[in-house]
Design a protein that fits this description.
The protein is built from eight helices and four strands. By secondary structure, it is α+β, with helices and mostly antiparallel strands. The chain has two domains: 13-84, 3-Layer(aba) Sandwich (Glutaredoxin), CATH 3.40.30; 95-218, Glutathione S-transferase Yfyf (Class Pi), Chain A, domain 2 (Up-down Bundle). Helix 1 (22-33) links the parallel strand 1 and strand 2 (38-41). Bound molecules: glutathione (GSH).
């Protein structure tokens, strides 16, 4: 069944991605939820290569090629997909509700996830700078505390604001074990994550992603 005005030939969605990338996993949740077909390819020339930068000047992953367009940044891609493939709507509601969804996304991308990423240099040598590691862990705890007030109470509809959080929570969980810290994800956030997993797009992605991440961490 085609929407009226939809051409019979639908250009393929091509995603530049690497399997372990957090933001690529976030984007796959959007693609899965919208039941889209996509082709996932590694960045030409490799991650961080000049060849990839010639194609995608920002050099980051994921990037999307579709219908002559090239877009980098998971959130810009997600919003594009939501407009191009509007069902199911992942940015629903009135302007205020949509602004809430966007603020959750922004908080994830600019505050919570960077606090996780700041820990990456410590993964290979967890005992080398304990004070710095403890400091970074406290920042992450603060970010988790701050996000509480932004979480939807009933995430019965999966929105763009939700898609990064289960992946980042998977990282936090894995790093908690890796660094041998006490768990820091509180009950409110845990309940929210449990409800998100009712969505096939989230549970399917996590089923693939969690073991991949654990394997990668063990190899570091
Ligand atoms: N805000 C960007 C962040 C993307 C990002 O940091 N991607 C990582 C991989 S998970 C990356 O490409 N890092 C290398 C770089 O930025 O050059 C997004 O949402 O896509």
């Amino acid at each position: 069944m085609f929407r009226s005005g939809t051409p019979l030939f639908l250009p393929m969605l091509k995603i530049y991605a690497v399997p372990i990338s957090l933001y690529c996993a976030k984007l796959r949740i959007v693609l899965r939820h919208k039941q889209l077909d996509w082709e996932e390819v590694p960045p030409p020339g490799g991650y961080g290569s000049d060849e990839y930068r010639q194609r995608v000047p920002a050099g980051n992953l994921p990037a999307l090629e579709h219908d002559g367009l090239l877009i980098a940044d998971s959130e810009a891609i997600a919003e594009y997909l939501n407009e191009e493939f509007p069902v199911p709507d992942m940015l629903p509601g009135n302007p205020g509700q949509r602004a809430h969804i966007r603020s959750l996304s922004r908080f994830h991308d600019t505050r919570l996830e960077p606090a996780v990423r700041a820990l990456f240099p410590h993964i290979a040598a967890p005992d080398s700078e304990p004070d710095e590691l403890n400091r970074l862990w406290s920042v992450l705890k603060l970010r988790l505390h701050q996000i509480d007030g932004l979480l939807p109470v009933e995430p019965s509809i999966l929105t763009l604001g939700d898609c990064g959080l289960p992946i980042t929570a998977t990282w936090i969980d894995a790093l908690t074990h890796h660094f041998k810290f006490e768990p820091i994800i509180n009950t409110t956030f845990q309940n929210y994550l449990r409800q998100l997993q009712q969505h096939d797009a989230v549970s399917t992605e996590l089923k693939d992603y969690r073991p991949r991440l654990n394997k990668w961490l063990a190899s570091q």
